[in-house]
Write a structure and sequence with these properties.
By secondary structure, the chain is an alpha/beta fold. It has 18 helices and 13 strands. A 6-stranded parallel sheet has the order 5-2-1-6-7-8, covered by helices on one side.
């Protein structure tokens, strides 16, 4: 069966992670994605993270399924080339500071004049509107502004960035792809394109459960509680005798009753009968569970919890991810032929569709401008001499 997005054309003008991930996700389900990079320099992601033979493994994974071309967006000749490609495209992704593309005559109004149906996914630190719109922003800044960094860590220590600083970037990329698909549905009905405007902090803000409604209703400011959870307990990490950590999540009374059965401490049910009781006695309860987990090897404790159907898991490191049979069965980590030789491992396609699944057809392009001849020559009809002239002048 043909991929769900076959025939869709995406022009990726963005750099780093956020907006490029929007294009990557669309490409996994069949869209043709043309990645535009700065001549002689390329995307900054090419220089981030660990490398093999001088090539960023991160770049190879996240630029997958994309055709790479070079174009100087600051040059009038480069802008003219981009406009010709926009006329043939459905979606444009970008993450420059607001106003930058407008200065280069490539803003939404400029592109809409050429292609009224064009959809532009715009990811920036603070969005296209508001008093902070021109401020720069990266994932760490987005985590700080969204409120999640303030919540992350222990109360007697500084706030920490949760997980990796790129989580806001990836979530913005997911939201960008969702917005693009919604905009495509609107275009189907009206013929009109539109702008998908995402501030980097907004996807995280959208996912902070009760934080906003609780403060709005009561003025309560949630503080850091370490690895625990403010509004439910036991919901924490506990260290086993062999040094491994277990995550345990009891979100209601039934789950807690199962935990007590696994621990063979049913007599404590009355003392910790309700969630309010458990929250009031949080520290005491955490000590009790830690003593039980700490007296066993992680595998033994986990087996008891699983038998009792208590939501629990080892806290995985990356080696565990590679070895886990469930992740392997669901192809959450896949190996694809590497342009550097051998195989390159990367995260598989998400979401999983039963009728029109996505795929990883190739890694990100190693050579800068790898598809210039194909796109500028075959697609736009430029002759080899014209392409060489543009290359010699630094336009491509």
């Amino acid at each position: 069966m043909a991929p769900a997005l076959e025939g869709l054309r995406v022009l990726d003008l963005a750099t780093f992670v956020a907006a490029p991930v929007s294009a990557t996700l669309l490409g996994e389900f069949g869209a043709e994605v043309i990645k535009v990079e700065q001549p002689g320099l390329g995307d900054d992601l090419r220089r981030l993270g660990r490398r093999m033979d001088g090539v960023s493994l991160w770049w190879l994974a996240e630029a997958r399924n994309k055709k790479g071309i070079t174009c100087n967006l600051r040059a009038p000749e480069g802008q003219a080339l981009i406009k010709r490609l926009v006329a043939q495209s459905d979606i444009v992704t970008e993450n420059f500071r607001p106003g930058t593309l407008e200065r280069w005559n490539l803003g939404y109004d400029d592109l809409r004049a050429l292609n009224p149906g064009i959809i532009m996914v715009r990811v920036s630190g603070f969005g296209q509107t508001g008093p902070y719109r021109e401020r720069p922003g990266f994932g760490r800044i987005a985590a700080a502004v969204s409120g999640i960094s303030y919540l992350s860590g222990y109360p007697d220590r500084p706030p920490v960035t949760p997980g990796t600083p790129t989580i806001p970037d990836y979530l913005a990329g997911v939201m960008g792809a969702l917005g693009a698909l919604i905009a495509l549905q609107h275009r189907e009905r009206t013929g009109e394109g539109q702008v998908v405007d995402i501030a980097l902090y907004e996807p995280i803000l959208r996912m902070l459960d009760e934080l906003i409604p609780v403060y709005g209703a009561t003025g309560h400011v949630r503080e850091r509680v370490g690895s625990g959870t403010e509004y439910v307990t036991p919901h924490n990490h506990y260290r086993a005798r062999d040094g491994r950590w277990l995550a345990v999540a009891c979100s209601n009374d039934r789950m807690f009753e199962r935990l007590l059965r696994a621990m063979e401490r049913e007599e404590l049910g009355e003392r910790y009968r309700t969630m309010d009781d458990r929250l009031r006695l949080r520290e005491e309860l955490d000590v009790l569970i830690q003593e039980w987990v700490g007296g066993r090897e992680a595998a033994a404790a986990l087996a008891r919890l699983e038998t009792a159907q208590v939501p629990a898991s080892l806290v995985y490191n990356v080696k565990d991810l590679f070895e886990d049979p469930h992740l392997r069965a669901r192809e959450n980590i896949v190996a694809v032929p590497s342009p550097l030789g051998g195989l390159l491992h990367m995260v598989g396609v998400v979401p999983r569709l039963t009728r029109s699944p996505g795929s990883i057809r190739e890694t990100g392009p190693v050579r800068l401008g790898q598809h210039n001849e194909e796109i500028y020559g075959d697609r736009l009809g430029l002759s080899p001499q014209e392409i060489e002239t543009l290359r010699s002048r630094g336009v491509i």
